[in-house]
Amino acid sequence: MSALNTPDKSISELHDQRLAMLQDIAKELEGDVIFPVCFDATIQISAVMKSSTASIQRVTHEIQKDPLITAKLLRLANSMAFNPSGVKVVDLASAVTRLGMENARSVALACAMEQLMRSRDMVAFEDISKAIWQHSLRTAMIARVIARQLTRVNPEIAMLAGLVHDLGAFYLLDRARHYPELVERPKTVAYLVAQWHESIGTILLDNLGLPEEIIEGVRENDQPRPTVENPRTLSDVIYVANLFAGGLEEIRLLDLPVEVEPAELTLPKYLALKDEMDAACADMLSIW
Description:
The chain is 68% helix and 0% strand. The chain is an all-alpha fold. Helix 6 (101-118) packs antiparallel against helix 7 and helix 9 (167-176) crosses helix 11. The protein is globular, with a radius of gyration of 20 Å.
């Protein structure tokens, strides 16, 4: 009898734990959000950048406290995407000057996201977290290319927005590891992530002190919209970049009517940038 009842019990426990996790997250987001320790450096850097008197010297002083962020910044500053002339920089201040403040913040956030993704605590969701991580990096670089080539949107802002557009997904995965029934069912967690990461991500980005422009730019980036033939806003850029970075699979988990292939993926103006997009993505992925 107990063997026959196990599946029903398991399904019931799964439902209860899924609900419990969402309720716990909702309660936490109503107060002070507790980020994993690996976000500490990012939060400090963001706090400095929020100051109206922030200088390259102040920012680099804060960044130098974290050797990983420093190393990644230097590598990115000397990558083909940011150093087409081949003139290398060897000091952090020069790297930040070349990249710009928002790209420096992007690298700090990326380091935190990578450490969270590689955490032993996330091993149960290794495949999901790795896929989201690589998708985030690709979206960031594709957004930078689209912004620079087709719009007046600041490419630095576009890159940062692309990187953090799925931040809520990492937060959900970090919380899901505390619930045994969810740990045993990664596919259920993938569905939960697709359904809830966007609304949660909006709150997280606000708590990290990111500009309102970015928070609005990543809002509803997975929701189908009229074909973006001529991108004008940051939201347009992130929506299209998300598609070219493989976001269609995530959108399909939302149980929404979606075309087999969104029209943007076949428009000549975007396809003409495909080689540049691919090169930029390869450049970024090689750094991480």
